[in-house]
Amino acid sequence: MILPNATLFPDALLPLHILKPRYRRILSDVLDSYHIFGVALRQYDAGMESPMPIVGVGMVGVCIDAKDGTPNLLLMGMACVECLGAEKYMTYRLERVRVME
Length: 101
Known about the structure:
This protein is mainly beta. It has one domain: LON domain-like (Archaeosine Trna-guanine Transglycosylase, Chain: A, domain 4), CATH 2.30.130. 11% of the residues lie in helices and 50% in strands. Strands 1, 2, 3, 4, 5 and 6 form a six-stranded mixed sheet that branches. A hairpin with a 3-residue loop joins strand 5 (71-89) and strand 6 (93-99). The protein starts with a strand and ends with a strand.
């Protein structure tokens, strides 16, 4: 998930309220698999789909739908990864990464 003003650090908690349909699709896919995804700051001098080179990766700890059906979730930071380039595009970007020490 590429955001303009938020990132996720190891051992930190990040609450998110998911509004956009594409991010709801990401969340649905994440919850159907390992409950893990990354939150990257967007590079301001590049396009909307350009993450900063270092990204925080976390696990969905809690996910509750609001009354309007939009999900509220709490991410638990696990690690930092280095972005190596887009692996593929679906309705969202899948990034190839390397876990940092």
